[in-house]
Each structure stands twice: as structure tokens, then as C-alpha cells.
Amino acid sequence: MTEVSAGLGTGRASVGAVLDFAWAAGEFTATDVMASTSLTRSTAIDAIDTLVSAAVLRELPNARAAGSYRAGRPARRFVLASDLGVVLGVDAGDNHVAVTVSDLLDRTLVHHRTDIDSTESAAARRATVLGRMEQALTEAGVSKDDILAICVGVAAPVNRAGVSPPHPDGFWERTNPGLADALAGWAPAVEIKNDAQLAAIAEGSVGAAVGCRDYVALLAGERFGGGVVVDGHVLHGAHGGVGEGIVFDHIVGVGSAFGLSYALQDEVRAAVASGEVDADSPIGRLADDDRVDPRVVLTAAASGDADALLATSRVGATLARVVGVLGSMYDPTRVIVCGAVAESVAPVIAAAREVVPTELHLPAPEILASTLGAEVVSIGAVTTARMAAREVAVPLLAERRLSAVS
């Protein structure tokens, strides 16, 4: 029995089977349902009519009315109702909040991303996240009553109850400031997830890991964190800490959980200090900035600048060691570098590919750059929220409506 069927109860298993089918079917007919389920025609039609009466499915104009059918009796066509409610996907990063409001047919109604103060208190951060979510609902023209499911990605391990463990510096508590409790009354399904795990879900759904059963989505811009998929399953752990980057503090040649942006900065400054890069060169002058912009270095390397290539080759060796650790621990076929840095990280990946076979005894995983950019966590959050709506919220809604019309 599918999860949707279970949510509707065993007495309505056929209704659940049709609802489960309708999620990914787009427009469909009773014949389509029969071909994908074990239902007979009469049972399929009865279940479809039940869901139409409950306004969970919508009957479309038949093919003759639409002008595309010329002979015989046209088949009735149906689609999942688009007005059942909305889902919210939130990327609550260390220094930004991105909120997406989407309907159940994968149509984005609102998406906005704003920078926030990474030093604000837990209470202030919680208010900021909730405020951005309320703003997005207002922009979409919907209310909390319309929300079916919410998924929020945070830069912290998260257990299955949506709670992060204590961090020595309080970072995880600030990043996930009681969001599970704060959002408990907002929707029938609320999930708080680690951001790297959501990146892995995004890559497996629409990114570089489609069809791949063993991979790591490596968020690598500000800090290293891996979303790990083994045998097609996203690994979680007792506290949601699988793939947590603190391990890299203890790896010789990496030395820190801080990501590629900081590694590029360190290599540029080290090369200037050693005299390998002239302090008056375009790359050398970056060392005087409060923070070296990684995009400038990566763009220069892609254009063949020798100083930039020196820095990116050394950062590539660092990335190779990171991939070597992940490869030895999880044996993935792919490691996908994710986040905003992925848009220009090709010079670093090229250098890493040359080194990584020496970093482990297993066959080296393929290193790829994500094509999903800075929104990879948002995409994973919306995907997860939509799945929660499918498995929890819509079956409950259908059950209530069916009870009302029966």
C-alpha cells in the first residue's frame, strides 16, 4: 500500500492509488490509471469520480470540446486540482533567507532571497525567518490556511524532530533557532532539514545526480558540508550529522571546515606573502582587500591568468583531499560541488580531478559542478515540502473532504 493509500485508510485504497498516480501524471484518463495500477476500469472510474466530487481532482474538457478529437466517444480527462493549497520551501542560510511559495503542480508563485545579519541573536533570526515567510505568503496572495507543507533548510545538523544539537559556539542554535516549534501550527507537515541534505535531494531530483544512486552533494562555498546518498537513500544519522564538515578540521591538507571561498582567499594571500605572486599584479592586489572575492579569482583563472591558476590549482588539491575523504567514507560515484561557488568553480575542479585518484584506494568519484547555483537548497526544500504534502497533507485533506461528501 502506498503512503497516500495508507493516509486515506484501507477502505479507500483505490482512491489512494488514484491520488498517488495523479501526482506525477499531469493530464490523465481512466485508462492511464489502469495501466499504472492494478485497478479495474470500474474501480478506477469510481475512485476518480470520488476524488472529483471532493474537488481533489478536476475534470478537464473532453477532447472533442477541446477541438482535438473527431470520431467516437472522447475519453474523460482529469488532473490534480491546482488549488488544493501551497507548499513553502525555505533556505535559511547563515547570511541569507530565501523563500519559495509553490503550488502542487510545480509552479513557483513567489520566490525571493534576501541577505540577513549573520550575527543576529537566535530570537531575532527566528523573527526574521518567520517574517520573510509571511511576506512571501502575502505576495502570493495566500494565507497560512492554504499551506499544506513547509520545509526549511538550515546550516546545522537536524534530528528527526527538527531540532539541532548544541554547538560549542552556539552556531547551530542560532542557525536553527527553534524553527520546528515556531512553525508547528503553520501546516499539517513541517520539516526542518540540514541544507546539504536538501542540496542532495535537489541534485537527485533535477540536477547532476538524476539517475545516480550513490553521490555526495558538497556545499563548498562558505563551509564544507555534504548531503550523502548511498544506495538511493539520503543518509541522516542520529542527530542529522552525516556529512558534517567538522571532520575536515582534522584532515592534513584541508585543516578547516571553511569552504572554497576561504581557501581561495588563503592561497592568494599566501602566494603574495611568499613572493610567488607580485603584490602589484591584479590578483596580488586582492590580498589587501578585507575579503578576497572568489569570483574574481575564478574568473581570472578561467581566462588563463597565471597567478589565479596558481591559487586555483592549490585549492584544487584541497578539494581533492576533501573528495578523497568522502570517497573513502561513502564510496560515491559522483561528488557534486554545490552552491553559488559552483557557477565558476571549473578551474578548481579541473585541478582536483588530476589529484583525486591519489587520495584514495577505491575508484575515484567523478567531480562535477552543480548547475543549480545558489538556489540548490531552495529547490531541495520545495521538493521535500511537495513530497510531504503528497504523503501527509493532501491525503488528510482528501479524507476530510470525502467524509464531508459521503
Write the layout of secondary structure elements.
Elements: H1 3-8, H2 13-25, H3 30-36, H4 41-53, E1 57-60, E2 77-80, E3 86-92, E4 96-103, E5 108-115, H5 122-140, E6 147-154, H6 171-175, H7 179-182, E7 189-194, H8 195-206, E8 215-219, E9 225-230, E10 233-234, H9 260-274, H10 294-302, H11 306-330, E11 334-338, H12 346-355, E12 366-369, H13 376-405
Parallel strand pairs: 3-6, 6-7, 8-11, 11-12
Antiparallel strand pairs: 1-2, 3-4, 4-5, 8-9, 9-10
Q: Which structural class best describes the helix and strand composition?
A: alpha/beta
Give helix % range: 40-55%
Largest sheet: 5 strands, mixed
The gross shape turns out to be elongated
Radius of gyration (Å): 25 Å
How large is the share of residues in beta strands? 15-25%
What letter string, H or E per element, gives the SSE order? HHHHEEEEEHEHHEHEEEHHHEHEH
Low-confidence residue ranges: none
Mean pLDDT: 92
Distance N to C terminus? 23 Å
Q: How are the strands of the biggest sheet laid out side by side?
A: 5-4-3-6-7
Number of helical stretches of at least 4 residues: 13
How many individual β-strands? Answer: 12
List keywords for this structure.
5-stranded mixed β-sheet; 13 helices; 41% helix
Task: Write a compact overview of the structure shown.
By secondary structure, this protein is an alpha/beta fold. The chain contains 13 helices and 12 strands. The chain has a 5-stranded mixed sheet, sandwiched between helices.
